[in-house]
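Protocol step 4 of 6: structure prediction from sequence.
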Amino acid sequence: MRLLRFMPAAFLLVASAFGRSYTTVFPAVESPVSEEGAWLTGAKDGLDWGDISTTQGKTHPHPGPARYADATALLAGTWGPDQSAEGKVWIGDPYNYPEVELRLRSTLSAHVCNGYEITFSLAPNAYLLIVRWNGPLGDYTILSNPSGSQYQAKAGDIVRASIVGHVITAYKNGVMKGQATDSVYASGKPGMGFNEQENGDYGYVSFTAADEMVSNLRPPLQRLSLPGTGAMGTAAFPWRDILGRSSKGLTMTFWRGP
């Protein structure tokens, strides 16, 4: 009879996992939001856009004076390319065109803001907006812009966006509301934002961002010292990553002996 014997002592399995997440309920009073350096913001770091402040448990938008100068904040550091971001909405006294925005694969530096914006309108004549920001202030490309009451974000709603490969998906309360495809940006940071110009007071009471977790198992090619003859092989086992996908496999080396 032949046996499949897994060999933790025979092979050194070097596993490396790259995954990052960030969750906040905005506990501090800050203008602009920093949370000990966790955030880059539109006016402080990008110069041409607006900032976001926080009171305990809430964000507040402060768009810049120019057109298209959305209040913007991106999480600092390096993030994996497949990302998600979500926020829980609060509403104070909105007017004009209030929007809650999520940012994916975005970058921010002096006079440059790149990446993807996923927006839900708070107004009754609501819409969903998926946009690519191309760098300079006011330079953007609309990727998707459906309208209808189903896209209106209300107090307590959880809006979420993800990008996997080239596909950007928008959700409200766990229900998919729209998608767009774009291949311009392959990396960047997640974040949040709010519409240009004055639109009242509203924002998020919580925010979470995460990137993909990648696992690599690389066993050295060393033969197991066992009596008799045998062969090395691998077996793949499905697993679920940080974004809930099960398309990956966990690879384990085994020895098939007599």
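Step 5 (inspection) to follow. Residues 20-211 form a domain with the Jelly Rolls fold (CATH 2.60.120.560).
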